[in-house]
Amino acid sequence: MAGKIAVVIGDKLREYDLGANHPLRPERLKIALALAKNYELISSVNILTPRLAKFEELLLFHTAEYVNKVKEYSRLGYGLLDAGDTPAFSGCFEITSWIVGASLLGIEAVINGKADHVFNFSGGLHHAHQDKASGFCIFNDPAVCISVLKKKYGIKRIAYIDIDAHHGDGVMYGFYNDPSVLDIDFHEDGRYLFPGSGFPNEIGEGKAKGLKINIPLPPNTNDKLYLEAFHRIVPAALRSYEPEIILLQSGADSHKGDPLAHLSITVKTYSEIALWLHKFVHEMCYGKIMIFGGGGYLLSNVARCWVKILSIFLEKELSEKIPDE
Ligand SMILES: [Zn+2]
Ligand SMILES: [Zn+2]
Asked: Between the CA of residue 218 and those of 52, 68, 268, what are the distances in Å?
């Protein structure tokens, strides 16, 4: 059941740099890619060269007022795009548009059958809202992808699964009353962690009632508890929804030791989730899955989690030994 797999790779994507002292380090993309190359995974995938998202594509999710504001700050090269976490930098409009374009390219490849599974390590900017930046995220690439899937390709049932330690608020509230998005979000309890949302009583509105599923986890949640929750909730929800495509935001900051969060899972959880989803997408939706990166602030963990996920979709065993390089 191996499917065609592609990875979006381009130098532009590494220029999303919020400053030398900012915890979101663009080097993580380079390290993840280097590790994947060392395991000889990259030679088995299709490489997609990113494109720039068009202004009109950004507007499928974001407001024109906000997109223009980013453009203006990008030209100025300084200022804050939110209350403090997301500084503007020179060219930030273009760089974020490259990241959105990279994710859109992945979606196009999956929909057009060029690939079954696509990974964009640089994507997963899940906190940006329609009208504002938040939590290091300027434009919300998964949300723009969802909008394009709906509006351009007429997809009616999209499942978005978010395993980043932080609640994917931009995506969830962006489609809160939209029944074409089943949103399942595992994250550290909002009472302890940014953005302070994603409680179990937030279940969606109107026709989407019951289609937004929040699983807040207490600090120190380990593999056993996390996976129990995953298996108790995800298979049943996905089987009853019958998605046409799955989007996975695979933030690596849920890993033990992340400096910005307090969950205690290991690569084992990322691995088991990827295994289960891989099997499921081939069974349910012709293999269609788009995988985004996301958070992750301890560089070695980020690389290990994402490379493990990639290896699972490639059906390649990784040796236990991490290559020296
Ligand atoms: Zn496959
Ligand atoms: Zn995060």
From this structure: 39, 39, 19
Region class of 26: left (phi > 0), else alpha (psi between -120 and 50), else beta: alpha
What is the domain-level CATH number for residue 231? 3.40.800.20
For ion ligand 2, residues whose CB falls within 5 Å: 164-166, 251, 253, 295
Within a domain: residue 161?
A: yes
Interval 173-227: pLDDT, tens? 999 999 999 999 999 999 999 999 999 999 999 999 999 999 999 999 999 999 9
- Please give the tally of structural domains in the chain: 1
- Residues with Cβ–ion distance below 5 A, ligand 1: 3
Does any domain span residue 73? yes
Please provide the size of the chain in residues: 325
- CA 122, CA 83: separation in Å to the nearest integer? 23
Give the residue numbers spanning the domain of 184: 5-314
Query: In whole angstroms, what is the distance from residue 141 CA to residue 161 CA?
Result: 14
What are the catalytic residues? 127
320 domain-assigned: no
Evaluate whether residue 325 is within a structural domain.
no
